[in-house]
Amino acid sequence: MDNNSLSHNKWDCKYHIVFAPKYRRQIIYGKIKTDIGKILRQLCVNIKE
């Protein structure tokens, strides 16, 4: 496991999640909102296991 660290923190980041700015959110989320929700829920389930 490759951990990154600072003076008081350690972390192991495996996912890069990008949230759209407010003005793009309606365009993007309107089209694929359900798909994004399914993907995020599946990632949460996988992390808990």
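^ that was protein a. below is b, sequence first then the tokens
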Amino acid sequence: DLVRELDEPLDQGGGDVRTHEVRSIEVIDGATNVPDGTWMLTLAGPCAQRVVGGSDVAAADLALAETPDPDATTLALLVTERACASEQSADGRIEVLALEETATEIRLRIGVRPLPGAQNCPSNPPTPFQVDLQGTVGTRVILDVAVEPPHEITLDPAAAPASVPDVTDVTCEQIERFAERLVDIGIAYDYEPSSGPAELAAWSDVVFGGTLTGEVVDQPATAPSAGATGDPYVGYVIAVEDVLAGDTSLVDETATVAMAYSPAHADAADYTQAAVAGIPVLVFAVEHPDAPGGLVATVMEGFLTACGDGPLLGWASEYGAWQDVDSLDVVAELVLADR
């Protein structure tokens, strides 16, 4: 693994502050598209270096629920569980692993005991949690020391309990981060790319445009069976706005479109956190019995996004046949022209 410190920390809200970037390169054996012994990039993206302890308590992000009074002897926190928890509160499962108070700092390490069994991955709600101190807060800096380097725990409005996101606030940076997750799934497929939107639509059962709702359904790996590979899937829930081909009854409804991923490559939480509500998408999908929601993206090209009128983002943008297709609108026009 190659790790470097970012020039500027990436604050994703709710106490999730990424300070480093990781690149993992592995020797690939058994793939059908590259010879055995090929070195390939298998993991890339921003991360936070976390303290590894002997506890089985999992990581959490911390934010202040309110600005503490200097005379207070308690801290009101919002604790966001990073593991999948089927959108359940972490109430009763939060543990203070370390609390150190000095004259200038309050140093906290907090984790969450995971729920048993397989869990889905819609966004976990922040859970209110109170920490009792030995002295008053005063002017001391409150630090999360579960990450290295420790960062200050601050009041973050984005960590407040559920509110409907303002989709107009989606940034190009968030869209690009989501596109990275679409591409970076840790699975190498051996197939012939399509010749463009028209052919990809012909391979698909439905083609539609819409926006992410922010909800993600994680389906853990299962035993392979007839018609199903057993791969784990991450399913993105999409508010459908326009159907270009296929079942038009999906308009103004939601559809879940899944993509397989390698759990050895990335956690489901990494995909969940990138799926910000309001991100525009255009999806080519086929019915699949192994996927949550019953739909999967048509090959690797079938899930596209873009920032405004900017270039396409996703696997299709990597292929020569798509080089002249420079926006989601152009993709839609080419699909409709061939109907």
